[in-house]
Amino acid sequence: MVTPRRTRVEAVGEGAAVTTLELFFDLVFVFALTRVTDWMADDPTAEVVLRGVLILVVMWWSWVGYSWLGNVAKADEGVLRVGMLVAMAGVFVASISIPEAFDDLPGGLSGPVVFAVAYFVVRIVHLGMFWICSRDDPQLRGQIVRWIPSVLLGTVLLLLASQAEGWLQTALWAGALLGDYVGTALAGASWRLNSASHFAERHGLIIIVALGESIVSIGIGVAALPVSWPIIAGSVLGLAVAGAMWWAYFDVTSILTERALAEATGERQIRLARGGYTFLHLPMIIGVILMSLGLKKTLTYVGGGEGHTLADPLYGIPLAALYGGAALYLFAHVWFKRYLIGTVNVERIVVGVVLLAITPLVALLPAVVSLLVLALVLCGLVGYETHRFRELRHAVRHGSHAEQ
């Protein structure tokens, strides 16, 4: 039987590059992350931040499924191109409704229902595209069949949550996400990974997207304020923090972990991809977005917005998000490297613990000084690692590590 041209898919080969459609797809997530950060910053209470994290997990689960799909078949060819564009529409509608994902605003459609339905569309399209890709692969088709219950459980609970309120609603969200993650972990490891380099690149790019949101948050925090020397100083410090976090991931870590993923084979490679990238990149993203929340509030303080002065300290949830987000990012890095290459980065554990320990102390300092301390600690970490491991770093970055 001849496969209709409109439903043909083109397999991804080893060494494939990320397509422009996948980059286009990621732009929707830039908007989604910005919406989450802005929503949390408007009312940074513990409940709002918790709900913001739950929204992040939902958006991550929407994105990560398509990173696997795009590694099996080319995203910009055949029916997958249409599927990706439809999924983008679903993600974009969900992003628009983020401020109403839990509490509906007066007038218009029900925000929680719109968010849940948009998420359902994204998941169904993803499942349908994978079903098409697996028509000549019985093992992958069986994996998808085992995975369907977790998809249904997650989406049904999210739809139920749209009809609930308060902590019951939050609990249903948590249950939906837990069911998705546990179900995926228990469904087996018979997925397909056609290109380790493509898969690693996709996840590296989403880290860039998240770090880009931290820079956007710096700008948005002072967008309506007159430029001043404190704003310039705070912006440079915020950029230094984001730069240090970029360095921590892309200088050596991303290279070593990609090599480890490429060298693995069979089911072990799938488990490394699922555990190291699908699961452990999520806390990195959450850490960056929490830090973005802290950066946005810090720049507001520094610029004299919302009635604050330069001497006012950053405290409470915004400060915990700023320092705790950076610490979570570092801890996730340690776990990621341990999972992929078996090494433990003690330096990053120590710095993460130090950041958590000094958080109550910097709450006594002006907001700009708190940001300065964070920048010095993170830049000091990357400087120390760069100097201490300079020979290994040179070998890794210039190719001789593989020969050793």
From TrEMBL:
<dbReference type="InterPro" id="IPR010640">
    <property type="entry name" value="Low_temperature_requirement_A"/>
</dbReference>
<feature type="transmembrane region" description="Helical">
    <location>
        <begin position="144"/>
        <end position="164"/>
    </location>
</feature>
<feature type="transmembrane region" description="Helical">
    <location>
        <begin position="48"/>
        <end position="66"/>
    </location>
</feature>
<keyword id="KW-1133">Transmembrane helix</keyword>
<protein>
    <submittedName>
        <fullName>Low temperature requirement protein A</fullName>
    </submittedName>
</protein>
<keyword id="KW-0812">Transmembrane</keyword>
<feature type="transmembrane region" description="Helical">
    <location>
        <begin position="205"/>
        <end position="225"/>
    </location>
</feature>
<feature type="transmembrane region" description="Helical">
    <location>
        <begin position="170"/>
        <end position="193"/>
    </location>
</feature>
<feature type="transmembrane region" description="Helical">
    <location>
        <begin position="315"/>
        <end position="332"/>
    </location>
</feature>
<feature type="transmembrane region" description="Helical">
    <location>
        <begin position="231"/>
        <end position="250"/>
    </location>
</feature>
<keyword id="KW-0472">Membrane</keyword>
<feature type="transmembrane region" description="Helical">
    <location>
        <begin position="12"/>
        <end position="36"/>
    </location>
</feature>
<feature type="transmembrane region" description="Helical">
    <location>
        <begin position="78"/>
        <end position="98"/>
    </location>
</feature>
<dbReference type="Pfam" id="PF06772">
    <property type="entry name" value="LtrA"/>
</dbReference>
<feature type="transmembrane region" description="Helical">
    <location>
        <begin position="277"/>
        <end position="295"/>
    </location>
</feature>
<feature type="transmembrane region" description="Helical">
    <location>
        <begin position="110"/>
        <end position="132"/>
    </location>
</feature>
